[in-house]
Amino acid sequence: MKTIKSMLLGAAFAVLSQTGMAAESGFTLETVNPEADRLALQAFYQERFAGVPLEDYVNGIYAIDPPSRKQWDALEEFPPYEFDLEEGEELFNTPFANGKGYADCFENGGIGIRQNYPYWNAEQGSIKTLEQEINECREQNGEQPLKWKKGDVAKISAYMAWTSRGKPFDIKIPENDPRALQAYLDGKKFFYSKRGQLNLSCANCHLQGSRLYIRADLPGPMLGHPTHFPVVRSKWGEIGTLHRRYEGCHRDTRSVPLPPQSDEFRKLEYFQTYMSNGLIVNGPGARK
Q1: 256 and 180 share a domain?
Q2: Residue 250 annotated as binding site
Q3: DSSP secondary structure, 164-232, as one string
Q4: Does the annotation place 245 within a ligand binding site?
Q5: 243-248 long-range contacts, Cβ below 8 Å, gap at least 24?
Q6: One-letter-per-residue 3-state SS of 18-82
Q7: pLDDT, tens digit, 9 for 90 and up, residues 144-172
Q8: Are residues 74 and 180 both part of a single domain?
Q9: Example GO molecular function term (predicted)?
Q10: Would you say 211 is a known binding-site residue?
Q11: Residue 104: CA atoms inside 13 Å, Cβ hemisphere, count?
Q12: Binding residue per annotation — 243?
């Protein structure tokens, strides 16, 4: 535990000035500026990993670590998510007992829409994620909800992401609804807040810790992090959702993990995905 904390503290001091750039605006409603935050994050990575094109950050750690990139390129020749995509497409197109299907619940029949998630729902006053609306679609049509972290919900989400590949993320924060800005701010605070017995924040690993070994792992960069989910992780041996990864990160900090699709995790996804606006959908993906 001391070794991990020492590594991350050393990394923090090494990039302290850059970290200030990565959180350019403040942590109150009066001072927060999402677009300034996004541009500052891009500048942070352009300075830290000079020469890496911004558009390459959809590839996660493989954008900034050449040895890992070679292994990943070889893996992508026979992607481990191919069967999940086939099953996801079949599940997506299988009618419910009432004769309706997922296509009836989503704009454009659910095809090519991943880049719009998560979004602020003004009527409900909350953030809506793709997996959340997949389950809501089921329940509205008399079906049982799916488990959040893996299995069918991840496969359906993966298929919907696949149909959206190449489309740039375009997450909106409505200017006429301060609740949306508050949701973004809550997600930002969550990302930078320390927690757990190891007293680590998301930023410690995925901002200061990008491409710095923590035991045998190289944390990926924050920029582009949500773009390639759902993913098949070698550690999991199966496909899983972004919120499954959030839960795992919490557990790794020796913190009591929040449940997938909790309000806090949905706001975190809102913040993170906004910060990747302009990058393209690259899911599903394969990771270690």
Answers
A1: yes
A2: no
A3: TTTPBP-----TT-HHHHHHHHHHHHHHH--BTTTTB-HHIIIIITTT--BTTB-PPPSTTGGGG-SEE
A4: yes
A5: 243/129, 243/131, 243/148, 243/149, 243/269, 244/148, 244/149, 244/150, 244/154, 247/149
A6: HHHHHCCCCCCCCCCCHHHHHHHHHHHHHHHCCCCCHHHHHHHHHHCCHHHHHHHHHHCCCCCCH
A7: 999 999 999 999 999 999 999 999 999 99
A8: yes
A9: heme binding
A10: no
A11: 13
A12: no
69 belongs to an annotated ligand binding site: no
Instruction: Give me the residue label for tokens 């041996």.
Output: 237
Mean pLDDT of the chain: 91
Q: What is the arithmetic mean of pLDDT over 55-75?
A: 94
Contact by Cβ (8 Å): 185, 29:
yes
Q: For residue 225, say whether it is annotated as part of any ligand binding site.
A: no
* 249 tagged catalytic: yes
The residue from 249, 252, 262, 280 that is catalytic is 249
Please check whether residues 211 and 277 belong to one and the same domain. Answer: yes
Query: How many CB atoms neighbour CB 86 within 10 A?
Result: 12
In the chain, the number of structural domains is 2
Q: Is the pLDDT of residue 203 over 50?
A: yes
167 in a structural domain: no
Q: How far apart are alpha carbons 111 and 95 in whole angstroms?
A: 16
User: Which residue matches tokens 């989400």?
Assistant: 157
DSSP symbol at 108: G
Encoded tokens for 132 = 């959340």
